[in-house]
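fold-stage: in
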Amino acid sequence: MPEDHDWEAYKVPPTRTPVSERTTSVPNPVNFFQSAFSYVFDAPVTFVREWIERWQAKNKFYYYHQKFRRVPDLSECLEGDYLCYYEAEAQWRRDRMVDQEIVEIVRERMAACKQREGPNQFQNCAKEMELLAQVTKAYQDRYGDLGYHGNARTCLMKQKHRMMEERKAAQENQS
């Protein structure tokens, strides 16, 4: 490459952009409205938002992982204690939702394993299959046949009847 450049062929752009000459002495109304909007609307809103963000940064509050205290079971409530009945019912509903999510998570893991393993799913996903069987059996034992309108009282009665049947079967096996 030659060292000296042909300055006429490759013109260098100017180093500074020239400032346009104002043709009138009247101020531009757009600039006036922009600055008025900035001071009247934008500055106060920005100040309040920054103040709120600073306050929230100091006082972090996390909305997830809400922990409820465990309340007495329905079998531990006194006769006529309606507040205890209500709390036990709410606790039962939370427990049922948690158990439903556990079953769903295990089912999703099982489906992912089947998708990942393909034809070898029966030997490579045996643990997931066994876990899914255990979880669904436990869920069915506790909440099965309650229907959509099941509540803590019917669930408690179902568990009581199951325990009585198991006790009766154990006595018959001993005899």
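fold-stage: in (second)
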Amino acid sequence: MAQRLALQRLLSLTPRGPLTSYGRAIGTSAGRRSTFNVQDGSDFQDRVVNSPKPIVVDFHAQWCGPCKILGPRLEKMVAKQEGKVLMAKVDIDDHTDLAIEYEVSAVPTVLAMKNGDVVDKFVGIKDEDQLEAFLKKLIGA
């Protein structure tokens, strides 16, 4: 009886349903669906290089002040595109190999990729108008 009560309490505290996966909540906003963190080289290959959609790749670092300004601004602008473009976030401290491969010498560096090829790039902070123009050029709008 005591074991059953303990199990019921545990189950009542455990999140269940479609919004959880392995104990972590999955965001459902458009911004969260269009933005993802790159996990490793093969994840980058699968989700960025092989993507059928245009991709914005944000090379950043936790210690980078300008990255903390640009990142949310860029995520917001990508979310406004309603799925026409995706955003991959790459922490250069965790993925030095990717930073070297894509010749990232300063952060933030943002690449625009289509069909696995880099088609545009910028380094540093941009305002919302500049980001919108960058995204429209990538999408072809």
